[in-house]
Protein: palmitoyl-CoA hydrolase
Amino acid sequence: MMRTGFQRVARLVHHKALPRNPHLLPKLHQASAFGSSTDSLVARFCPEKTDLKDYALPNASWCPDMLSLYQEFLEKTKSGRWIKLPSFKSNREHIQGLKLPSGLVTASDKQDWRIFTRCILLEGQGYEYVIFFHPSEKKSVCLFQPGPYLEGAPGFAHGGSLAAMMDETFSKTAYLAGEGLFTLSLNIRFKNLIPVGSLAVLDIQVEKIEDQKLHMSCIAQSRDKQTVYAKCSGVFLQMQLEEDPPQ
Amino acid sequence: MMRTGFQRVARLVHHKALPRNPHLLPKLHQASAFGSSTDSLVARFCPEKTDLKDYALPNASWCPDMLSLYQEFLEKTKSGRWIKLPSFKSNREHIQGLKLPSGLVTASDKQDWRIFTRCILLEGQGYEYVIFFHPSEKKSVCLFQPGPYLEGAPGFAHGGSLAAMMDETFSKTAYLAGEGLFTLSLNIRFKNLIPVGSLAVLDIQVEKIEDQKLHMSCIAQSRDKQTVYAKCSGVFLQMQLEEDPPQ
Structure:
């Protein structure tokens, strides 16, 4: 049931069939659709007090470049223009208190669910990354250091691991900048390989929001901008999440 | 040195600057470039005897759909038209005895290197997949079952995990079909989400080989083809690997 329900919802949305099948779709409040302020989205996303472990914090595996650029951005958060996003083990923890689109039933909570980019919890072996978000300019920076479990060609990060990192950074930016929820497309051009253990800096920008779609761009490069690793554009579908009624 | 060397090689190749900078490039034997037969590539890639663990074998986590389609394709390998590709923990093991392009130095072997799509070794938690290749028709089928560590939206596979699976299946197909080595571009359109624990079938086809580039397409869908999860096109750069001289 879960599978069919979700797929019908997703397919309808993708085929722009929203008006004809309202019973399957998330309840959209047209007057206020996509009207949640960035401030309120950020406040929900970055709880001041939480018992959840934040994985976007420095550890012994971070290379000096990653660590010093992290400190630079952390300094910038003091002015309030930039925000450091926490990174929990599962997206379930990020959207606590919110309902997924109606018609969807999420799978049970009994398994050890992990967001893909936190699938490897061993420090330094998999994904090391932290995302900073600039609400007023609708842009993000992701500091990404691939570990040896993300290998493709010997000694270099797999193209797919960078694709996933771009998708994930797009995803968090799209949600906070305009309630973008689902990836519709990714278009990636690879230019150079990223050596395992080194820093790649991803600069993400929301280019425009039109017809319930967020159009975004990303460039991944070395810290000194002398080497471009990849360029990517992505489109995300807006979908407003409702608050769960109190239990 | 490794980093600069590799990036220069990769950048030159990407910018079609091969003729002007031959000293940095892999030694291409123009007369025979990209002339290795598919048979010899397959023979090297699928050793009849090896001590390496093959991760593309059924285990208790495989869903009934995955298991029965695996058996179907395994049956087809008996005629010799289809080949089941082994899947080792690292690409280093797949290219044993071959040299990477000159100018590149691979990182040390001391770490626990893993190809990204085998980054999680716990059965059923991460990537479960097996690739079958059809040499004469230059096409592949990948049976892919995402586990709970590959989550994006609650209960569903992260778009990035599917992007990586497509890139990896393209990569193996490109190598065997025409010595395709590096991903130049990926263009993905997502249609529906894949429920965690269920089977997605990826059909990959080499569309054409032109100007040292392999153009490939992929459709990921449910076994009954009623639900399309995503469509993707990819371009890979051909580059012939030389045999390592015997030690």
Remarks:
- The longest strand of chain B covers residues 180-190.
